[in-house]
Amino acid sequence: MVTKYILTIFALAISGSLAQSCKNPQVEAASFTSLDATIVTQIAYITEFTLKCDNPLPANYALYAEVEGKPLTAARIAENRYQVSWTEEPSKARAGVHEVHIFDEEGWASLRRARRSDPSVTVAPLLAIQLQHPGSYSGPWVNSEVLATVLSIIVAYTALRSKSMILA
């Protein structure tokens, strides 16, 4: 029985020493959003970033993201390069700055534990990226068919009015 406890403590000590966290994170990010809502059913938000740390990170270093309370996974696309993406319906997509909070495994676990007791609690992220969405174009205020119909009615009214003045 004592051997099980010693092995458990030893395993926890080894896993704790092997788990690495990014020291002094530096990030370079680029973002993309869908701008034309007339031809798509979902607005896409994509941010790619390069993470540089003072210490070397393992090849399978996992990152997680949270955007406005929505949990996301950061996909690793190359060495030290990650991508976070999500979609929203055009009616719910808002223009402005979207804050993307990036967490490592330790921070993500802390956030999940804290949220179980209080859903409004915040945990400091490893880093935060700001994604600027200028808004999406959902078409003209007046469709061309409506404008053509209104102009046709105005031209017909003017023609008939002029005709009645000439004949009178």
UniProtKB/TrEMBL annotation:
Is the keyword DNA repair assigned to this protein? no
Which membrane topology term applies here? Single-pass type I membrane protein
Q: Predominant location of this chain?
A: endoplasmic reticulum
PROSITE patterns according to UniProt: PROKAR_LIPOPROTEIN
Superkingdom of origin organism: Eukaryota
| GO (cellular component) term, any one | endoplasmic reticulum membrane
Q: Which UniProt keywords apply?
A: Disulfide bond, Endoplasmic reticulum, Isopeptide bond, Membrane, Signal, Transmembrane, Transmembrane helix, Ubl conjugation
The places in or outside the cell where this protein is found are:
Endoplasmic reticulum membrane
Q: Does the keyword Lipid metabolism apply?
A: no
Q: Where is the signal peptide?
A: 1-19
What's this chain's function? TRAP proteins are part of a complex whose function is to bind calcium to the ER membrane and thereby regulate the retention of ER resident proteins.
Outline the subunit composition. Answer: Heterotetramer of TRAP-alpha, TRAP-beta, TRAP-delta and TRAP-gamma.
PANTHER family attached here? TRANSLOCON-ASSOCIATED PROTEIN SUBUNIT DELTA (PTHR12731:SF1), TRANSLOCON-ASSOCIATED PROTEIN, DELTA SUBUNIT (PTHR12731)
Family designation: Belongs to the TRAP-delta family.
- Its name, as the record gives it, is Translocon-associated protein subunit delta
Q: What is the lineage of its organism?
A: Eukaryota, Metazoa, Ecdysozoa, Arthropoda, Hexapoda
